[in-house]
Amino acid sequence: MSAATTRSRTPDRLCAEAVDLARAAAEEVAWPGVVGEHVGAVSEGDRVVTHFFGCEELGYRGWRWAVTVTRASRAKVVTLDEAVLLPGPDALLAPEWLPWSERLRPGDLGPGDLLPTEADDPRLEPGYTGADEPPPNSAVSAEMAELAEAEDAEVTAEAPANLQVTPSRGSIAAVAEELGMRRARVLSRYGLRAAADRWDEAFGAKTPMAQAAPATCVSCGFLAPVGGSLGQAFGVCANEFSPADGRLVSLAYGCGAHSEAAVMPKPPRPAPPVVDETTVEPFPLRPAPDSGSVPDTADESGAELGHS
Fold first, then answer.
1. What does each C-alpha distance from 210 to 193, 194, 202, 207, 219 come to in angstroms?
2. Which residues lie below 8 Å from residue 108, measured CB to CB, with a gap of 6+?
């Protein structure tokens, strides 16, 4: 170990004693009342010492005011080098910066926002390829871009069968457009698997709703099937009372709104009454002529006795 190295690790006496000079410099840079107590000094080299003061400003917990002082060789006057605010060992710091593409999370995209897709996105792969077409992910030169633009204008104007001259290039794109496959890129196997993992985590067999369900979605009448390879494991829920209404659900998912989980019972029919109180019996306002105990026929003997 050299003598210079030994001297650099030992704080210079005059610089180490210049605490008041360092505090005055920190208070001149900072707001009034935010420079705290002197918490130490560190030798930065020959006749160079950094003094640290606590920071009392709100929001800067663990930060320190660092003021570096120095003096020239054989000089008795200590001068100021710099004064800055630096984080301490336990300082509250912002998280490490990440590009926007890595900070983006599902649900962050709002109305009017545009999300560009990288050319080598592993979730996508070329939708169609051919010897007369450059790969969709390749860089196209300016000359080829002008040629492709002219061919698209010629080919997409109408069906290739109606053209007078068959184009020498762009025929694969024209056929793909007629078949409904005019997409430059489609989902790769990686993209399909990543999407399936997300959907299965949200509406899959391991969710608490599926664990308590009486049956799975594969036997539910409200399941709308989807095409393609995803239809082997997923479908769309079409039950407005289900928590997954309008969502892509796993066939192993389930909920209490399963179409065959329970059958609504028929309304009970009351038993026939023992005493029929619903039938109206006619009651005459005047008695019938033959309802009395005395016959209605004339009886002379009775007339004499006073019977009417």
1. 21, 21, 11, 5, 13
2. none
Q: What is the pTM of this model?
A: 0.41
Task: Summarize pLDDT for 50-93 with one digit per residue, the tens.
Answer: 999 999 988 888 999 999 999 998 899 999 999 999 999 888 88
Pinpoint the alpha helices (H) of the chain: 3-9, 13-16, 19-29, 100-103, 142-155, 171-178, 189-202, 208-211, 300-304
Beta strands in 90-183 (DSSP E): 124-126
- CA nearest to 234, candidates 223, 222, 244: 223
CA distances from 162 to 149, 150, 156, 166 (A): 20, 18, 11, 9
Cβ distance 239 to 257 under 8 Å?
A: yes
What's the rounded Cα separation, in Å, for the pair 228 and 68?
Answer: 68
Residue 108's pLDDT is 79
d(CA 183, CA 306): 119
Instruction: Name, in order, each residue with C-beta under 8 angstroms of 226's C-beta and a sequence gap of 6 or more.
Output: 234, 235, 236, 248
212, 244 Cβ separation under 8 angstroms: no
User: DSSP strand E in the chain: where?
Assistant: 35-45, 48-55, 63-70, 79-87, 124-126, 185-187, 223-225, 234-237, 248-250
Identify the CA nearest to 12 among candidates 41, 34, 32.
Answer: 41
Starting at the edge strand that comes first in sequence, how are the strands of the sheet with 223-225 ordered?
223-225, 234-237, 248-250
Interval 287-298: pLDDT, tens? 777 766 666 665
Residue with token string 């890129």: 185
> Would residue 83 be called left, alpha or beta, if left means φ above 0 and alpha means ψ between -120 and 50 degrees?
beta
Q: Which of 196, 259, 189 is nearest to 224 (CA)?
A: 259
Q: How far is CA 73 from the centre of its chain?
A: 64
